[in-house]
Amino acid sequence: MTKATGWPSSAESHGIVPHEVLAIGDMPNDVPMLQWPVARTPWRNAHPAVVEVADEVIGSKHRGEDDDAVAN
Fold first, then answer.
1. What local confidence, expressed as pLDDT, does residue 14 receive?
2. 3-state DSSP: the chain helix, strand, coil percent, rounded to 5?
3. C or N terminus of the chain, fewer CB within 10 Å?
4. pTM score of the predicted model
């Protein structure tokens, strides 16, 4: 099972539909996961292949930077 197959299956089993999902990733292995949800949101400093499939790019995922997008 991968991120791309595991979490959609889990979401669907709980009645969660794609437009209710926000996926955040940063590396090429996240691209299949980011192709499933409606909201594809990588970190600003994500791999270029991930940013390419983005709907919107958010701040950095690293603590200590001024634009923390999501608390770790």
1. 92
2. 35, 10, 55
3. C
4. 0.60
- Assigned domain for 3 exists: no
Provide the number of structural domains found in the chain.
1
If DSSP codes are grouped into helix, strand and coil, which group holds residue 43? strand
Q: What residues form DSSP beta bridges with 23?
A: 40
Which residues lie closer than 8 Å to 13 by C-beta, 6 or more apart?
Answer: none
Give the whole-number percent of the chain exceeding pLDDT 90: 6
Show the domain range for 58.
21-63
Residues of the chain with confidence (pLDDT) below 70: 37-38, 61-72
In sequence order, the 6+-apart residues with CB closer than 8 A to the CB of 49 are: 28, 31
